Amino acid sequence: MDHAAPKSLQDDFENLFENTMAGNLVVSPGGIVLRANGRLARWLGHTVQELVGKRLSELLTVGGSIYLETHLAPMLRMQGEFEEIMLEMRSSSGGKIPVLINGFEQRDAAGQPLFLRLTVIRATHRMAYEQNLRQAGKQARDALATVEGTLLDERETAALREQFIAVLGHDLRNPLAAIDGGMRAIARSPLNEQQETIVSLVEATVKRMSGLIDDIMDFARGRLGGGIPVRLCETDLATVLLQVVNEISRARPGRTIDADVELPLPIMCDGPKLAQLTSNLLANAVAHGAPDGPITITARSKGAGFELSVANAGEPIPADAVERLFLPFTRVADGGKQGLGLGLYIASEIAKAHGGRLKVVSDESRTVFTLEVPT
Asked: Mean pLDDT, to the nearest integer, of 315-342?
């Protein structure tokens, strides 16, 4: 039987918005629901009219609302989108519905947000899968304890450990987000000097823990997925690098960081990933370089590619340590400084994902890490 073609693209869009297996939401920059489709309304036990005008945070659980404020909102400001974020929505009866949410922020010509499109997918089966994965991780740990000293293949053992790391990193995010949100709420209240000090210490610890979890997740994705994924697009890399320098300088006001960045043309790269690489290199220079010596970051275009280097004065890296510097969980003896030893490994993997290479030269005068991304 022939079907009539849509009268217009608008009709086609309306049909797609309403008749799909996913829930659809359009949300204002202020977080107010402007539109919802019938499928999402049925999932939540509301009518479409009841959803319109509600705040997005009202449709989420407490943990989901905190995650929206502390993670998704900053991610939208930086990237304009997010993918496959696991949250829980609240039904009208008070039940919890696990969902995966994809979001895209529509902006005007000046870059100001107009509205946010959200695609919501029920994740009941995904949750069951993750529960099975956690159980598999426990079984793997039990198996490792009982079969130690047997003929288990080293690669299989490493894969099991990396699966466990991935599960652990994922499960730590939500409680840490709750702590972070709680501290933000407390910080908005009147506090005495002692309370302000405690809140500041907890916030600094949360920030450090979040960085460690990010490193663990990047490590797990890189090892289990064949490398760290990147999204290449034309990027004003100079602005990205200078923002990182500014952030590190504010965090360490006593250290001098000289930036010599000349990248007049957009670079085809993943800006957030290269910001992470640069942050790792600068943090490494701050931690291991001479306290009274300057740190220099230099960036130059090379054809359609570029070269980035971070240099610092201080004791040279031992020759035997240089050979394993970019391996995971490798740390040079540094007088007790903390860390997982993943920063340089992740930086190296980001370089490889861009088709480039990260190398280091270290002598008595200075240590230089250089990223080369060819045409």
From this structure: 70
pLDDT at 169 over 60: no
b vs e for 4-13, b when ≥16 Cβ sit within 10 Å of the residue's Cβ?
Answer: eeeeeeeeee
Report CA-CA distances (Å) from 165 to 10, 87, 138, 161, 202: 46, 21, 12, 6, 24
Give start and end residues of each alpha helix (H) in the chain. 9-18, 38-44, 48-51, 62-67, 73-79, 124-146, 154-187, 193-224, 237-251, 271-288, 319-322, 343-353
For residue 311, what are the CA distances in angstroms to 39, 127, 271, 344, 369?
56, 46, 21, 14, 6
- Please give the residue that has the higher pLDDT: either 174 or 79: 79
Query: Model's pTM, two decimal places?
Result: 0.47
CA 40 to chain centre: 28
pLDDT single digits (tens) 263-278: 988 889 989 889 889 9
- Which of these ranges, 207-216, 243-252, 315-324, has the smallest mean pLDDT? 207-216
CB-based burial label for 291 (10 Å; 0-12, 13-18, 19+): exposed
d(CA 50, CA 44): 10
Alpha carbon 294 to its chain's center: 29
pLDDT band of 335, cuts 50, 70, 90: very low
Q: All domains of the chain, ordered by start, with CATH?
A: 9-122 (3.30.450.20), 126-224 (1.10.287), 233-373 (3.30.565.10)
Q: How far apart are CA 29 and CA 32, in angstroms?
A: 7
pLDDT reported for residue 168: 56
Per-position DSSP letters for 216-263, written without gaps between them: HHHHHHHHHTTS-----EEE-HHHHHHHHHHHHHHH-TTS-EEEEEE-
DSSP 69-116: IIIIHHHHHHHSEEEEEEEEEEPTTS-EEEEEEEEEEEE-TTS-EEEE
